[in-house]
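Researcher: Good morning. I'm working through a list of sequences from a screen, and I'd like to move beyond sequence-only analysis. For each chain I'm collecting a predicted structure so we can compare shapes side by side. This is the next one on the list. No need for commentary yet; just the structure.
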Amino acid sequence: MSSPYLLSYSALWGVVVVLIAIVLHMNKKLLDLNQVLYNMLPKDLPLSHEGIPVGDPFYALDLQDTQGKNILWNKKDTLGSIVLFTSSFCSTCKTVYPLLTQISEKHSQYHFVLVIEGDPEYARHVQEENEIPFQVTSISSEQFHQIGIPATPFAYIMNSELKVGYKGISSTLPAFNMLVEKGSALDSPSSSKKKARFLKGA
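Model: Good morning. C-alpha cells for this chain:
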C-alpha cells in the first residue's frame, strides 16, 4: 500500500473519528438541554393549593343550564366530572371557550360542566357562539364569591362520587391534560365520608 494512500486512509479515519466525537458531544448537549427544559415545565397548575381540598366533596350547586334543565354534576358510565369556573369579566376565559369542545372530546371519559359568573344571557351566548356540547350555567357574583373560586379560569376534576381529585387554573390544552393526569389519581369509590357542600341557586 503506497504512502499517499495510507495518508489519505488515515486522514479519512481521522475525519470520521472527529465527526463521531462531535455527534456524541452534540447528543450530550441535547440531552442536557432536554433535562433543563423538562425541569422548567410546571409540576402543578397555578393555584392548585387553593379551593376545595383534594379528597373533599364538591359543592352540590342547585343550578339550571341555559336550557332551563337542572345541572347534572356527575353522570353514569364516566370516570368523574370536570367543572370549569369562568367569569364574564375574565379576558383569559374568552380564549378557553373555543377549546372546550376539543378538550371534552379528548377527555370524553369525564362529564363536563361550564359555570360562568355573569347573567344567563351571557352564558347562553358563550355556549352558542362556541358550540359547547355540554351543560353551561351562570352563577351570580355573590354565589361565585361564596364558594371561594380563587381566580378564573379555575377547574375542578372529581371522581364519580364528586370528591375533588385535583384543581387549578386551566386555560390551555396542556393544563387540562395535567388536570386529568393528576386528578385521575384519586381512587373511586373514596374512603372519605364527608358529604357534599350544598349551595342553593338563585
